[in-house]
């Protein structure tokens, strides 16, 4: 009888599938089980990908231990990770490490948190009864119970499940008495498992009191009926739910999840960033109680671990999570929801560079599930799929209760500057509208999608700008102190910082190049807007929301809650304030500059601008009062801006997709971005040229290779970067050409990063 051979993935990113022999004295592992295998001089824990694989002919090493008798990772999740590795041209180990819980490969099963509970034994209860009856009960050591001992026994007896030591003391007992009572057999100690519940530590929105389901609007009702029928059919059905901002998509998600649960199936709800959409998780929690699990990377390891094991044990009906939750070990999946499916945070920006939305569709196909991609501004990819009939299209064209969309006004900043001077940050129209809101006690949001105080420091004499020594970008200017009372112009408190590598330095008073004392700050960021608004509205109750102000865990949730409680009138911030929030008293949205993203050398610039403007305008007027948005721009005729003004997604799609067709960009073609790093410019370019040449040799005529050229971010963290693109309509042949080229150049494989379906071109 020949030995059993297994394919194993280990958590080493550069390695592919490895084949090992299972010796006869070990049990045959199943797919998804953990095994220990030798690799070089080390022993590693890996996951079994396949059993009884073919012999590759050379001497194989033996598996040294089989750690699980059943699958640790469900086989369908293993298959999904393998799909991700193939499609995104990554190693299976890298893909699996996204799917595993924290400490998943250490083989430790004791990572649960435990607590001790103290209970009174039957002997202790008898003694307490005798003591109370005054029948001369003898306690530890044959003596009468002391007061402390009596109190301690009573405290422990007061809770049926026993008490923790902390509770013991609040109930009048004393931990100093425990040891003697235990030794006398009057108290017993049990160890119990405690769930670390991410909802109780204030990092999530407080869970609203259970809301009763509302009466659906007609439009919601027909959308729901259609989707419910597909859910009931138990067949894979991909749906694009295109619903304008405020059309009530969340209520449909809740009801679909409820229906899945009633049929004994689970729902997986993906959201862009939990911290940005705490309301969604909280709403599910309020409807489904503790049958909801949360999965995202900002959880502490312990919390993530506990939540993962609850899902694995089938103890939950709904999983709410960010991109990696697409790998959650749900065995009875009937529904997957991808909220704000256009959001770029679904794409992972390190290996494996997978797109959570696209993986969700693949997972739904294997599970025979309904997958609903929801957005007011669908990605071009998803809308193209809907137009082509690959996805069902369900529309919500109106806001609930026929509330009007926000009125959007454009302010041409060229004209404004001509009339009001070149230094304008807040236009007269926006200032007046804001004053009105403050007078009426309504709320406002002000967006500028760039953080910091200024974009750069520039010398007026020689044109030199302060640059990062490691990256080819200007250093942004940050104030070390901001908020009320901070002086905006005090350069001693400024720092120049790189937004890519975090390199920081002080701001010199003279130009480092020509020594002239004419260094000026150029370009504005959110902190500058905050300073400007504080100067113009001294009593404003305002907070800033960007990555600088919400660095600490939970601080964003607290800010959003203060805004919801009306303790703040204005939020100023980056795109973080544009996402999904539902604050009914916001009646004004201001955009300081709509143009921040338009200048980028990126074919998605217009799409991103349209999405951001439509989404942020969608935050206004969601309650009973009508909303207004004021957008300041230097390009008031750009189609991404004019069509956001009229909320005309269809027109935007048609225009943008025509451009993509003409230029052969996605979704018209598939694309892979290959970046090769080097110590010098020449090394990077040479490496990229060699690799591109190898790809050209391997690829058939259906694949176009463009480049190489220096990447737009030509230096990053000290490395030089050159890039080339593959374009084509047949992804498998593109992938195969790349794999073969990398096999022929193992040295370059280590220096190359591959991005399949890239979202940015940097
Ligand atoms: P979307 O996600 O589509 O932008 P939401 O789901 O946040 O919109 O809904 C917008 C607002 O309308 C929310 O405050 C929500 O509670 C409310 N809402 C949803 N459905 C109804 C309904 N049928 N009747 C009344 N209000 C509703
Ligand atoms: Zn840098």
Task: Report on the architecture of this protein.
The protein is built from 22 helices and 29 strands. It is an alpha/beta fold and 762 residues long. The strands form seven sheets. A seven-stranded parallel β-sheet has the order 10-11-9-12-13-8-14, sandwiched between helices. A six-stranded parallel β-sheet has the order 15-25-24-16-23-22, with helices on both faces. Strands 2-1-4-3-5 form a five-stranded antiparallel β-sheet. Strand 27 and strand 28 (719-728) form a beta hairpin. Helix 7 packs parallel to helix 8 (249-262). The radius of gyration is 30 Å and the shape is globular. The two termini are 55 Å apart. The chain binds adenosine-5'-diphosphate (ADP) and zinc ion. The site of adenosine-5'-diphosphate has 17 residues, from helix 8.
């Amino acid at each position: 009888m020949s030995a059993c051979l297994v394919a194993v993935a280990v958590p080493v990113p550069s390695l592919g599938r490895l084949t090992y022999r299972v010796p006869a004295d070990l049990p045959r592992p199943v797919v998804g089980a953990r095994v220990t295998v030798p690799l070089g001089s080390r022993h590693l824990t890996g996951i079994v990908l396949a059993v009884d694989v073919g012999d590759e002919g050379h001497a194989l090493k033996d598996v040294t231990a089989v750690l699980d008798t059943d699958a640790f990772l469900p086989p369908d999740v293993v298959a999904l990770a393998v799909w991700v590795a193939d499609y995104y041209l990554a190693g299976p180990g890298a893909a699996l490490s996204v799917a595993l819980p924290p400490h998943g490969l250490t083989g430790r099963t004791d990572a649960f948190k435990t607590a001790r509970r103290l209970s009174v034994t039957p002997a202790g209860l008898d003694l307490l009864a005798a003591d109370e009856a005054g029948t001369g009960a003898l306690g530890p050591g044959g003596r009468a119970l002391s007061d402390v001992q009596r109190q301690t026994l009573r405290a422990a007896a007061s809770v049926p499940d026993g008490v923790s030591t902390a509770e013991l003391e609040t109930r009048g007992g004393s931990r100093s008495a425990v040891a003697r009572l235990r030794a006398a057999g009057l108290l017993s100690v049990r160890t119990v498992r405690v769930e670390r519940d991410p909802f109780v530590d204030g990092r999530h929105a407080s869970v609203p009191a259970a809301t009763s389901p509302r009466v659906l609007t007609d439009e919601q009702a027909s959308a729901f009926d259609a989707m419910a029928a597909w859910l009931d059919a138990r067949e894979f059905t991909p749906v694009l739910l295109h619903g304008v901002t405020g059309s009530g998509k969340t209520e449909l998600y809740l009801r679909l999840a409820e229906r899945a649960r009633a049929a004994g199936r689970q729902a997986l709800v993906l959201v862009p960033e939990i911290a940005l959409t705490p309301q969604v998780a909280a709403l599910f929690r309020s409807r489904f109680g503790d049958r909801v699990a949360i999965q995202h990377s900002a959880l502490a390891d312990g919390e993530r671990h506990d939540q993962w094991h609850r899902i694995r044990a089938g103890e939950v009906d709904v999983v709410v999570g960010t991109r990696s939750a697409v790998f959650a070990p749900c065995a009875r999946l009937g529904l997957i929801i991808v909220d704000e499916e256009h959001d770029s945070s679904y794409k992972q920006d390190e290996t494996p560079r997978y797109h959570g939305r696209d993986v969700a569709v693949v997972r739904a196909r294997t599970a025979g599930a309904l997958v609903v991609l929801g957005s007011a501004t669908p990605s071009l990819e998803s809308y193209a799929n809907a137009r082509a009939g690959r996805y069902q299209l369900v529309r919500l064209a109106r806001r609930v209760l026929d509330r009007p969309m926000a009125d959007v006004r454009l302010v041409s900043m060229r004209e404004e500057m001509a009339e009001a001077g070149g230094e304008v940050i807040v236009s007269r129209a926006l200032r007046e509208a804001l004053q009105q809101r403050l007078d009426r006690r309504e709320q406002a949001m002000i967006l500028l999608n760039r953080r910091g105080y200024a974009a750069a420091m520039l010398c007026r004499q020689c044109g030199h700008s302060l640059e990062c020594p490691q990256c080819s970008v200007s250093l942004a200017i940050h104030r070390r102190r901001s908020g009320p009372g901070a002086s905006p112009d005090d350069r001693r408190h400024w720092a120049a910082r790189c937004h890519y590598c975090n390199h920081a330095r002080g701001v010199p008073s003279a130009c480092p190049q020509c020594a002239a004392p004419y260094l000026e700050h150029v370009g504005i960021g959110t902190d500058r807007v905050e300073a400007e608004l504080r100067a113009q509205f001294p009593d404003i109750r305002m907070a800033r929301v960007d990555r600088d102000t919400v660095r600490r865990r939970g601080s964003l949730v607290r800010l959003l809650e203060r805004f919801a409680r009306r303790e703040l009138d204005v939020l100023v911030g980056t795109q973080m304030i544009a996402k999904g929030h539902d604050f009914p008293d916001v009646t004004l949205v201001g955009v300081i500059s709509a143009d921040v993203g338009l200048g980028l050398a990126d074919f998605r610039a217009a799409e991103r601008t349209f999405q951001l403007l439509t989404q942020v305008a969608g935050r206004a007027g969601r309650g009973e009062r009508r909303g207004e948005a004021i957008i300041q721009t230097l390009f008031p005729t750009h189609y991404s801006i004019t069509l956001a003004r009229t909320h005309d997604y269809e027109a935007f799609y048609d225009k943008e997709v025509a451009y993509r067709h003409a230029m052969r960009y996605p979704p018209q073609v598939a694309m892979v971005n290959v970046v090769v790093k080097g110590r010098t410019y020449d090394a990077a370019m040479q490496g990229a040229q060699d690799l591109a040449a190898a790809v050209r040799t391997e690829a058939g005529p259906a694949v176009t290779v463009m480049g190489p050229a220096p990447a737009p971010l030509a230096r990053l963290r000290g490395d030089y970067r050159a890039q080339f693109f593959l374009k084509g309509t047949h992804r498998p042949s593109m992938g195969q050409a790349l794999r073969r080229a990398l096999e022929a150049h193992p040295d370059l494989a280590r220096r190359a990063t591959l991005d399949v379906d890239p979202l940015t071109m940097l």
